[in-house]
Specification:
The chain is 46% helix and 20% strand. With 322 residues, the chain is of the alpha/beta class.
């Protein structure tokens, strides 16, 4: 009967563990998308996943885990083991905003429970208005102050970044308008075009074409620079000389907190290399978005600053969950 020396017996547990280590390293990486198929976030996830897969030599598989405004999938990612097998495509509403708007139902901390990996793309917002409203943003602010009643403005829902940008305009410029939440962006845009809704905050991709076609008025873009889709539409910074009057929706890669920093850096390097490719850049720009070069450290700084700004906005506007 075969027997083991004492040295071999002591080494046996480590030898037996090697196949499990290899198996763990060869498993696919689940990229959780907290929104449904066909959404802007899902589209970006499916553009970046194969590019990172090629560079890591590990397959990224997009898993849509939607619901509760993206917080269900985000919470699943926060609770995932930090073993290098799970990534999240996070957005500003789930990472920076939700915990301040619905603190009783959001069971994760957007800063504490995730390791920032790389910003992927950003998308500016527009303030649009129905035809027949004042022609410029300056005239709009003046008219709102002269009217007995404030204008109404729509967004994609209470406490979303679109809602908060509207509140930022109210707080910083004195524009008088009251919020009307919508579940469906298409319905909101239709009601602006039909004249039932005065104003709306929307994304460049959603409402830019209708502004370009003259179906609605465009009052400004929330980015720091003008956008190629609407080169004649000025930024709010240009119009107000307020450098903080900017806000963009974004998509970024995250890992669960306490994930190996070496793995985070490898994914970040793969994402940076992918986003530097002209073909991928063009595909992202075709969606009306801007590819990003923001890696782990600057992304962490950005998130801290944005979180503080959103928290202050929510408190100042006294936004309550609905």
């Amino acid at each position: 009967m075969p027997f083991l020396t004492r040295r071999a017996a002591l080494a046996l547990p480590g030898l037996l563990a090697l196949p499990h280590i290899a198996q763990a390293q060869s498993r696919t990486i689940t990229l959780i998308c907290p929104f449904g198929p066909g959404t802007n976030v899902d589209t970006i996830a499916r553009l970046i996943a194969p590019e990172i897969s090629t560079r890591l030599d590990r397959q990224l598989v997009v898993e849509n885990v939607s619901g509760a405004g993206g917080t269900i999938g985000t919470e699943r990612a926060a609770r995932a083991a930090p073993d290098g097998n799970t990534l999240l495509i996070g957005v500003e509403s789930t990472i920076n905003v939700a915990q301040f708007v619905t603190p009783s139902t959001v069971r994760y901390d957007g800063l504490r429970d995730f390791a920032p990996v790389h910003m992927l793309a950003t998308l500016p917002l527009l303030l649009i208005g129905k035809l027949g409203m004042p022609a410029t943003f300056t005239e709009l602010v003046a008219a709102s102050k002269a009217n007995a009643n404030p204008f109404n403005f729509g967004s994609s829902g209470t406490g979303t970044s679109l809602h908060l940008f509207g509140e930022l305009l109210v707080q910083r410029t004195g524009l008088r308008m009251e919020h009307v939440p919508y579940r469906m962006g298409a319905q909101m845009l239709t009601e602006v075009m039909s004249g039932q809704l005065d104003l709306a905050v929307s994304t460049l991709t959603s409402s830019g074409p209708t502004v370009r076609e003259g179906k609605v008025l465009g009052y400004g873009v929330s980015s720091t620079e003008r956008q190629p889709l609407l080169p004649n539409l000025p930024t709010f910074i240009e119009q107000t000389r307020m450098p903080d009057l900017t806000m963009e929706v974004w998509q970024a890669l995250f890992a669960p907190a306490r994930t190996d920093p070496g793995f985070v850096q490898r994914v970040a390097a793969a994402a940076a290399e992918a986003l530097a490719q002209p073909a991928l850049q063009q595909r992202i720009r075709d969606l009306g978005q801007t590819p990003s070069t923001m890696g782990p450290a600057p992304l962490a700084d950005f998130l801290r600053a944005e979180s503080a700004r959103y928290e202050a906005l929510v408190k100042a506007a006294n936004i309550q969950p609905q």
